[in-house]
Amino acid sequence: MIKVYGIKNCDTMKKSFDWLNTNHIEFEFHDYKKLGVDQNTLQHLLKQCTIQTLINTKGITYKKLSEDEKVQCQKASTALPLLQEKTSMIKRPILQLEGEILLGFDPVLWAKKIK
């Protein structure tokens, strides 16, 4: 089964849920805001992407960071605790398929990979 990581009230997440439901794709949802995210999960994600692609640098949470915190975001070792504290900075959605993750809402890519 596909596991979807994100925040329920995000517009991109709503589009993602709509796409998954319209295409009758079963998924399990992990809400960062309610459930948090542990370091093991983040490290697992980083085996398939870089810290730069995992962090949502276009979001309000990232933009409100201090310059020191933005420097912390450049290395996984210092970024992970910050991502656990400020889960809104994690790119969304993240779809965890068998052995692969997909970052961001991309219906064309999803159609190729999921169906």
Summarize the structure.
This protein is α+β, with helices and mostly antiparallel strands and 115 residues long. The protein has 8 helices and 4 strands.
Observed structural traits:
115 residues; alpha+beta; single chain; 48% helix; Glutaredoxin
Report on the architecture of this protein.
- By secondary structure, this protein is an alpha+beta fold.
- The chain has a single domain (2-114), classed as Glutaredoxin, CATH 3.40.30.10.
- It contains eight helices and four strands; from the N terminus they run E-H-E-H-H-H-H-H-H-E-E-H.
- The protein has helices at residues 11-22, 32-35, 39-45, 51-54, 60-63, 67-72, 76-85, 107-114, and strands spanning 2-6, 27-31, 94-97, 100-103.
- The two termini are 12 Å apart.
Order of helices and strands: EHEHHHHHHEEH
What is the count of distinct domains?
1
How far apart are the first and last residues' alpha carbons, in Å? 12 Å
Largest sheet: 4 strands, mixed
CATH architecture: 3-Layer(aba) Sandwich
Question: Roughly how much helix do the residues carry, as a percent range?
Answer: 40-55%
**Full CATH superfamily name:** Glutaredoxin
Indicate the mean pLDDT: 94
Mass-distribution shape: globular
What does the radius of gyration come to? Answer: 14 Å
**What is the CATH C-level name?**
Alpha Beta
Topology, element by element:
Elements lengths: L1 E5 L4 H12 L4 E5 H4 L3 H7 L5 H4 L5 H4 L3 H6 L3 H10 L8 E4 L2 E4 L3 H8 L1
Parallel strand pairs: 1-2
Antiparallel strand pairs: 1-3, 3-4
